[in-house]
Amino acid sequence: MSQDGLLGEVLSEGVLTLTLGRAPAHPLSRAMIAALHDALRRAMGDDHVHVLVIHGPGRIFCAGHDLKEIGRHRADPDEGRAFVTDLFEACSALMLDLAHCPKPTIALVEGIATAAGLQLMAACDLAYASPAARFCLPGVQNGGFCTTPAVAVSRVIGRRAVTEMALTGATYDADWALAAGLINRILPEAALATHVADLAGALAARNQAPLRRGLETLNRHLELPLEQAYALATPVMVEHFMDPGRRHLDWID
Q1: Rounded to the nearest 5 degrees, what angle is found at the Cα of 235, between the Cα atoms of 234 and 236?
Q2: Closest CA to 20 of 90, 121, 103
Q3: Angle CA(79)–CA(31)–CA(93) in degrees, nearest 5?
Q4: Which residue in 93, 88, 89 sits closest to 115, CA to CA?
Q5: Whether the Cβ atoms of residue 71 and residue 38 lie closer than 8 Å to each other
Q6: Strands (DSSP E) found in 74-142
Q7: In sequence order, what DSSP letters do the residues of 45-78 get, joined into one string?
Q8: 88/127 Cα distance (integer angstroms)
Q9: 181 phi, psi to nearest 5 deg
Q10: From the candidate CATH numbers 1.10.287.2460, 3.10.580.10, 3.30.420.10, 3.40.640.10, the one assigned to the domain spanning 208-246
Q11: Where are the chain's structural domains?
């Protein structure tokens, strides 16, 4: 864990695990967002990092933004508008970079992921959860609306499901999240960390150039019309077959 207690970073065999600090809530304060974004940027430029795992250990994966921090800025001359603007712009920049990261990102979720905490999970490529995990967009219950968290969530589940989450502010269990496509799999708590570590290790051992280019292309073509998606993907597929790291796998008659 860093000296300020915000973020732990452990790199092992190509897998960088980022552990959120300030337990138990692991809130996305302005400083936490900066620490996460700095770690992500460094990881994206580090050839020794092949996979990123984000972990908020315990009963709360991440409780979202630090509402106490926001509350303290209500005493500012502008009632906190400048701080809140900076906070949400910084958070959106982090989530964009996480979503566009060319290296696989995995969320390890043991407890509740709520508001911007759910946004953080949804921005990752993959998410694995324990049976105790819970998921929520609670803004409407506090007189607001989880508008920016819904951006990330809407990219991984259907329109009706995310609309229900955002309009009701209800808390959903792991079975619902799996059925909705919000998470990839539910693992027993005792097996969750091992499964994620094994998967991350396997991905880190892959031929990295086509994996990164393929993931980047996948993330881009999902937002394109079908014709444009094929136009983007076809030349990338050609390069996969020309990559020297995979030629030995070709069939030989």
Answers
A1: 90
A2: 121
A3: 85
A4: 88
A5: no
A6: 105-109, 112-114, 126-129, 134-136
A7: T-TT--EEEEEE-SSEEE--B-HHHHHHGGGSTT
A8: 23
A9: 90, 15
A10: 1.10.287.2460
A11: 7-204, 208-246
Question: Residues 200-241: pLDDT tens digits?
Answer: 999 999 999 999 999 999 999 988 999 999 999 999 988 888
State the first-to-last Cα distance of the chain, in angstroms, to the nearest integer: 54
Output the CA torsion sign for 98, 100, 104, 110: positive
Q: What is the three-class DSSP state of 87?
A: helix
Structural tokens at position 66: 């630090």
pTM given for the model: 0.93
Q: What is the pLDDT of residues 91-113, one digit of tens each?
A: 999 999 999 999 999 999 999 99
Report the 10 Å Cβ neighbour count for 212: 17
For position 243, what pLDDT does the model report? 79
The CA-atom distances, in angstroms, between 200 and each of 45, 107, 203 are 18, 11, 5
Specify the CATH number for 7-204; select among 3.40.50.460, 2.60.40.150, 3.40.350.10, 3.90.226.10. Answer: 3.90.226.10
